[in-house]
Every structure is written in C-alpha cells, then in structure tokens.
Amino acid sequence: MKEEKKGEPVARKQKMTDAHKKKKKPRRGLVAWIKSLFHRVQISRNIGIDLGTATVLVYVQGKGIVLQEPSVVAIDTNTDRILKVGIEAQQMLGRTPGNIAAVRPLRDGVISQYEVTLKMIQYFIRRACGSMFIPPRVMICIPSGITEVEEKAVLDAAREAGAQKTYLIEEPVAAAIGAGLNIYAPIGNMVVDIGGGTTDVAVLSLGGVVVSRSTKIAGDKFDEAIIRYVRRKYNVLIGERTAEAVKKQIGAVYDHPEPGRVEVKGRCIRQGLPKVVTISSKEMIEALAEPVTAILDAVCWVIENTPPELLGDILHNGIVMTGGGSLLYGFDKLITRVTGIKTRVAKDAVSCVAIGTGKSLDNLELLHEGAINISRDKRSRM
Ligand SMILES: Nc1ncnc2c1ncn2[C@@H]1O[C@H](COP(=O)(O)OP(=O)(O)OP(=O)(O)O)[C@@H](O)[C@H]1O
Ligand SMILES: [Mg+2]
Known about the structure:
Blueprint: H1 2-15, H2 18-44, E1 46-51, E2 55-60, E3 64-70, E4 73-76, E5 81-85, H3 87-90, E6 100-103, E7 106-107, E8 110-111, H4 114-129, E9 137-142, H5 148-160, E10 165-170, H6 171-178, E11 189-194, E12 199-205, E13 208-215, H7 219-234, E14 236-237, H8 240-250, E15 261-268, E16 274-280, H9 281-287, H10 289-304, H11 308-317, E17 319-322, H12 331-339, E18 343-345, H13 352-359
Helix pairs in contact: 4-5, 6-13, 7-8
C-alpha cells in the first residue's frame, strides 16, 4: 500500500511532458510571486497622516510611524521655492533674513496657507513612500470641528500631493483608537485631545462620535498666555519658541510637589535691552489659567450633553487625555478634581492620533473616500 501511495505521484510526474513542466510550474510560481509583490507594495502604499498644527506624523501600514516633524516650512520669498521642511525649517523660525520666510501653514488646526500646506504634504508623502510609482491611499486626521470648506481643502491638498484616494478620520476617534480604547463596543469612552491648535473633547460609542466639542484653544494659546504673563509681570518680551520651551520645561496647571524654576531671556520693554528673569512652575498655573479654564469648560459641556447611560460608562472607565498639551503637569489631576471623573494621560500621548489613524488603515475597504462631514450630526457639535 505504502509503495503504491508513494508511487502514485511519481507516476503522475512521469506522465508530465517537458512542455507541461515548462508551462505550469514556473507560471504558478510567477503568479504567486507577482501577487505577493503586489500585496506587499499595495500595503506599503497605505499611509496615515496626522496633519497637526504643531507636528506632522506619518504612519506607513505595516511599518508604523516613519516620520515625525514640526509642521514648519521655510520658503524663498523671491522664488516661492521650498527651502526646508520640518525640524530644519523650525530652527529658522524668527531667525530668517528678508528673502526667507519660515512659516507654519496650519493654524488653529486648519490650513491657513493652502499652497505651502500642499507642498508640505507632498514632501512628507514622498519621504514616507519613496517613489510615487503607485500613488498611495492616504488617511488624514482632521479636527472634529472642521467646516466642510476646510475639509475640502484637506482633500484637495492630498489629491494634488499625489494621493490615489483620500480618507478622513476625526481626531478624537483616531486619538481613542491610538490610546487603545475599544471604541466599537456599545460602551461610552471619553477622550480629551489637546494639540497645538485645537482641543477636541469627545464621547465615543459604537465606533462613532456621540457628543463632541472642538475649541481653538490649545498649545499655541498656552504659549501666548505665557508671553502675556512675562510681559505683564516682568515687562519682558519673549518669543514664541522661548515660551514653548518654558512651557515644556516647567509648565503646570496643578500644584507641583517639587516646583521647578527656569531662567528666561527676553527684551526689557522699558529699556529695550536684554534681560533675564527667573520663572517658577507655580507662576505657570497663574499664567495658563485663562486657556486652561476654557478647556475645562469644553470638557464640562461635553459631560453635560452626554446621554446618562454613556456617562455611567465614562464614570467607570475614566477620561483619557492625548496630544502634546496633555503633558502639562497636572492636567489629568485638574480634570479629575473639576469633574469628579478619574482621568489619565495615555501612553505615547503625542503619537496616539497618528497610531489611531494608522490602525484605521486596516479598515480602508469598509470606508468611503472623501468628506465625512456630510453624514455628521452637527447639532451636538460646536
Ligand atoms: N511636555 C510638554 N508639555 C507641555 N506641552 C507640550 C509638551 N510637549 C509638547 N507640548 C505641546 O503640545 C503641542 C503639540 O501637540 P500635538 O503634537 O499633539 O499637536 P498637533 O497634533 O500638531 O496639533 P493639532 O492637533 O491641534 O492640530 C504643542 O503646543 C507643544 O508645545
Ligand atoms: Mg493633533
């Protein structure tokens, strides 16, 4: 029996003519190889972009986050040529000669300089994908309060930058996915994403946004508040980059057990000469009070407008914070104190949105290309 079984395939093989071998074997291998190559190429061409006001992060499906750069572009104002993008352009901010402008083309979470944003997206897609032989399918993250006109600008910019198809995802949805929340379950989850230009507060359930509020008060406004505070209290003028550095070093919205101090260099308003002042993290609480109160108002508004069943879930699960602004010392503690709901800052708070945008690339087949605003219930949005 054994011999017969072994012998059968041998006999069949022997029956095959040389012509058969030539035709069938290599073709099957070739087809499989082309299929796997196409599959690999196709997968690597799905990319997710967190088009942030402060930072752009690009996620390539199958690879993860491949680049993270400040949303800054340096342009030659005589020729309109892009000179630098990202970190190198950021270093030029406030330090450029007359013929060079270092600009942030996104303000308050939306495109304020269309052409520059377009070139920036183009640059990042090229860097992430290499050759544009097969145009990528792109998922872009947008703030939940974006208007249809702003949404169209994002779609147009992505298309002109070479995207084959463009899909949009709301920032709090991406943030929640990136923070590891199961937003598809019939359970309420609440996210507070504090970025550079916008703060998005949302309650999610069954994969969608139930209640949300998007406000243009976030990291940039914190920097402006610090500039105003130093000017008012010390008569010293400091720049945006200095204010941001102070915020990152000693920024706090809650009493710190070990308060820090930092020296700040600026220009004395009265004498016009350089002056150094020392600021403490305790002073930061005072300096940031106004924008922080506005964010707390948005959080309370969302809670007040959340259906009671979902609110019960949130009381149980807590609030999750994402975005760079959530790293200000004590923001989670402050929200807990004001709302009575336990709050935590997500792991990898700055990358959560990009990770969530990237993960949602796995469901591209189920999504519709283009605008998502049309299907939104705007009554519960700001
Ligand atoms: N350690 C830190 N402490 C305080 N603020 C921080 C810290 N690190 C980053 N930030 C601030 O976080 C903001 C950037 O956060 P993030 O990258 O989430 O914004 P973004 O996604 O680019 O903006 P948006 O979502 O509003 O378009 C900046 O204002 C930055 O100064
Ligand atoms: Mg963001």
